[in-house]
Amino acid sequence: MSTGKINVSVENIFPLIKKFLYSDHEIFLRELISNATDATLKLKHLTSIGESKVDYGNPQIEVKIDKEGKKLHIIDQGLGMSADEVEKYINQVAFSGAEEFLNKYEDAGKDAGIIGHFGLGFYSAFMVAEKVEIITKSHTDAPAAHWSCDGSPEFTLVESDKTNRGSEIILHIAEDSVEFLEEGRIRELLTKYNKFMPVPIKFGTKTETLEKPEGAKEEDPAPTQEVDDIINNPNPAWTKQPTDLEEEDYKNFYRELYPMQFEEPLFNIHLNVDYPFNLTGILYFPKLGQDINMQKDRIQLYQNQVFVTDNVEGIVPEFLTMLRGVIDSPDIPLNVSRSYLQADGAVKKISGYITRKVADKLKSLFNNDREDFEKKWNDIKVVIEYGMLSEDKFFEKADKFALYPTVDDTYLTWEELDAKIKDTQTDKDDKLVVLYASDKDAQHAYIQSAKAKGYEVLLLDSPIVSHLIQKLETSKENVTFVRVDGDHIDNLIKKDEEQISKLSDEEKETVKTSITDAIADTSYTVQLEAMDSAAAPFIITQPEFMRRMKEMQQTGGGGGMFGMGNMPEMYNLVVNANHELVSEILNTKTTKKKERLIRQSFDLAKLSQNLLKGEELTNFINRSYEMIK
User: Fold this and answer.
1) Which of 12, 107, 464, 525 is the most buried (most CB within 10 A)?
2) 402, 436 Cβ separation under 8 angstroms
3) Helix (H, G, I), strand (E, B), or coil: what is residue 343?
4) Measured between alpha carbons, how far is residue 33 from residues 77, 118, 184, 190, 354 in Å?
5) Which residues of 290-299 are buried (b: 16+ CB within 10 A; e: fewer)?
6) Where do the DSSP E strands lie in 61-112?
7) Closest CA to 65 of 178, 192, 234
8) Would you state the pLDDT for residue 452?
């Protein structure tokens, strides 16, 4: 028997582990099973190259709860350790710079990543245990060893009578951690952190139904047997080559990741790179629709099949956090802080690679089956448009597959759109004018008016459309976007024949004054324009710039980006100077009748824009009944 002190720089290492790692205390099980997995896989390697003469067999890791004894056992059939190796790997904790540790992590929280930084994986056991034992037998002929420590720097190390190779870690669970003696809690942690570990993990047994023997009666119960309950899948889809997987394999893996998600993903992207970094994984595009605020953090990050986190910000570009799936990279430490990730060069390369891979996949889908891509567009456009906004490299690649739907349900690439409207939709400065609608029903009259003039109207209805068109206007040359109910399009589009006003300038001014006085609303600017006499007499539009800024505010851009606060409502009341109603207003001598004509026409225009509400709507209805009488 030998006794001694664990070789650490400070005597209060265990209180420090408790204090600084307690917020992440559940990861002790991940750390211990990771160690068991490493020991098993190292043995596999040594037997494969002939350095170990033992029979590798089909080893597994077992987790057992002894509720009465308040103990948790983690048992492996891996390398095991000799007494000398226990001294080396357990007692001599690599813990230099203790004063630096104390200073650096004095106020640290759960993001500090202390275990990974200081190599204290095994010692995470003391976050939940008042005493820890290791009973271990090396794969060599060395005698078995039994190590014990009660959470102080004191330990005992004696010979053991263990005969089978591997290690058994016994945690004597502390009073403040008895939750880890509950089967449901342990199963939850094993499923969370170890669901795809590369070595089978046994947790208890389960009953398996067998086939009935030949000749059994229908009413006879089927025979059953108790089998090991293996809670993990050691060979998940992302660890295989894409050429070895069928479409159904990807769908099955999606169901395995998200058993409560009943809708199939639209498509997947298999990541597989080994230079200049190692990365594997599978990403899935779910049906997103218009919901930019759908649940994020559905991508799971693994390191060598060990779950790390589902907060992949900094590793996956933000616009792709709406996707689902798995990323596995040994180049990302198990315990890392957010600031570390954002500053790490390898992580930035990983992020760039994922962006490029997603863009290439989307381009391939577009090129191979455009019709199918168009059918899926409304379910994936939010991710693509968000990516175009936030990632310049993605924007460049997306130019080849991003679609611009029209109100007639056709889909155009930017190149196709440019070719279609370059000769018909330009303003007086020869700038290309792209007309768009954001709501086909609410803007129906404006859409019909534009189409009657032969204009192409896009349907851009995603929640970030204002930001997107701002990006397009700055990235494309000589282009402006105008919503179909924005500043009146006849002011912007160059026409072959200009409309001539039927009213003189003096008559226009008289009508404008009459209308301004009658509506008595300073948020409306009255404009008289010469238009086709068949067009509506009163049309309400909103200045494109002001409306766009308000929309940006609503989607998180305006206030923060431009510091404009709450912008006022501003509208244009465009009056068709060539409409017969305007002539009637001009020629009506009775002030009361003139005001009633103006108010009714103005309210009809507001009604078409869903701007007539409350008392104004009630007054309009009553006035309409009076006019009918």
Assistant:
1) 464
2) no
3) helix
4) 12, 18, 18, 9, 29
5) eebeeebebb
6) 61-66, 71-75
7) 178
8) 83
Per-residue pLDDT at 290? 59
Place of tokens 């539009």: 541
Residue 368 amino acid letter: N
In this structure, the number of other CB atoms found within 10 A of the CB of residue 588 comes to 16
pLDDT value, residue 156: 94
Q: What sign results for the dihedral spanned by CA atoms 12, 18, 23, 25?
A: positive
The two structure tokens encoding residue 240: 């295989």
Q: Is residue 382 exposed (0-12), middle (13-18) or buried (19+ Cβ within 10 Å)?
A: buried
User: What's the token pair of residue 340?
Assistant: 């570390």
Closest CA to 24 of 321, 304, 309: 309
Q: What is the mean pLDDT of residues 6-10?
A: 54
- What mean pLDDT is reported for the chain? 83
For residue 173 the two structure tokens come to: 């669970």
Single out the residue of 87, 86, 75 nearest to residue 33, CA to CA.
75
Higher pLDDT, 105 or 538: 538
The whole-angstrom separation of Cα 283 and Cα 327 is 8
Place of tokens 């710039």: 545
* pLDDT at position 345: 66
Dist CA 62 CA 166 (whole Å): 11
Q: How many CA atoms lie within 13 A of 357 on its CB side?
A: 22
Residue 66: per-residue pLDDT: 96
- In a 10 Å sphere around its CB, with 0-12 CB exposed, 13-18 middle and 19+ buried, how is residue 473 labelled? middle
Q: How far apart are CA 56 and CA 9, in angstroms?
A: 38
Which is nearest to 398 in space by CA: 359, 354, 364? 359
pLDDT tens digits, 583-618: 998 898 888 889 889 999 999 988 888 888 899 899
DSSP state of 198: S
Evaluate whether 149 touches 115 at the Cβ level (below 8 Å).
no
CA-derived radius of gyration, the chain: 35
Instruction: Show the DSSP H helices in 485-579 as ranges.
Output: 505-519, 544-554, 558-562
593: β partners = none
pLDDT at 423 over 80: yes
- Of 21-25, 307-311, 387-391, the range with the lowest mean pLDDT is 21-25
DSSP state of 418: H
Q: What one-character DSSP code corresponds to residue 235? A: S
Count of CB atoms within 10 A of residue 2's CB? 11
Taking every pair of C-alpha atoms in the chain, what is the biggest distance, in angstroms?
A: 117
- 447/573 Cα distance (integer angstroms): 18
Given a cut of 50, is residue 350 above it in pLDDT? yes
**Phi and psi for 120 in degrees, rounded to 5?**
-105, 30
Per-residue confidence (pLDDT) for residue 11, from 0 to 100 = 54
Angle between helices 591-608 and 505-519 (to 10 degrees): 80
- Residue 514 Cα distances to 438, 511, 528, angstroms: 33, 5, 12
Q: Show the tokens assigned to 356.
A: 């490029």
Confidence of residue 326 (pLDDT cuts 50, 70, 90): very high
Q: Which helix (H) or strand (E) holds 347?
A: helix 345-368
Sheet of strand 71-75, all strands in order from the earlier edge strand to the far edge: 2-5, 154-160, 144-149, 129-137, 166-173, 71-75, 61-66, 201-209, 224-230
First to last CA, the chain: 111
